[in-house]
Amino acid sequence: MMSILVLNGPNLNLLGIRQPEVYGHTTLADIESMCREHAATHGFDLDFKQSNHEGVLIDAIHAARGQHDGIILNAAAYTHTSIALMDALSSTQLPAIELHLSNVHAREPFRHVSYIARVAVGVISGFGAPGYLLALDAMRGHLERSE
Ligand code: DQA
């Protein structure tokens, strides 16, 4: 069965209370439930993780090799800074989708830079919590086409 890892970076554990005018009122636990329901409906396996630590995210990307078929990564602020996360994704050679709740291109210039996009199949940004389901559908389609 197809297996997708959804990986969330720093401060996303505070969704729901963190700048709701930017990120909405949905908590990360709510988003995980939505993703799990989507996986059950469409018949694929899902792993859902969050860490505030760059090294833990890198370890999770390495561990995805052989366990998952694709990675959806909301690297949060590390998107804009982390060559190490970019290199980790390149090393696993798994397809990755970069995901953001907010439209990063409509925000501050430092959020227009992404190290992740360079190694991603594509980017989904600005659709809030439902963007996670868009990313899951995009990854399913990508994996089915590359079978
Ligand atoms: C974010 C956008 C990033 O710029 C920011 O640092 C985040 C969240 C988003 O989901 O919109 O923490 O990745």
Average pLDDT rating: 97
User: What's the number of helices?
Assistant: 5
Through-space gap between termini: 12 Å
Proportion in β-strands = 15-25%
Contiguous uncertain segments of 5+ residues? none
Supply the helix-strand structural class.
Answer: alpha/beta
Largest sheet: 5 strands, parallel
The global form is: globular
The amount of helix comes to: 25-40%
How would you briefly describe this protein structure?
The chain has 147 residues and is an alpha/beta fold. Helices cover 38% and strands 18% of the residues.
Describe this structure as you would to a colleague.
The protein has 147 residues and is an alpha/beta fold. It has a domain at 1-26 and 40-53 and 67-72 and 120-147. It contains five helices and five strands, in the order βααβαβαββα. Strands 2-1-3-4-5 form a five-stranded parallel beta sheet, sandwiched between helices. α2 (28-42) runs parallel beside α5 and α3 (54-64) packs parallel to α4. The chain is globular and about 40 Å long. The two termini are 12 Å apart. The mean pLDDT is 97. The structure holds 1,3,4-trihydroxy-5-OXO-cyclohexanecarboxylic acid. Residues 11, 74, 76-77, 79, 100-102, 104, 111 line the site of 1,3,4-trihydroxy-5-OXO-cyclohexanecarboxylic acid.
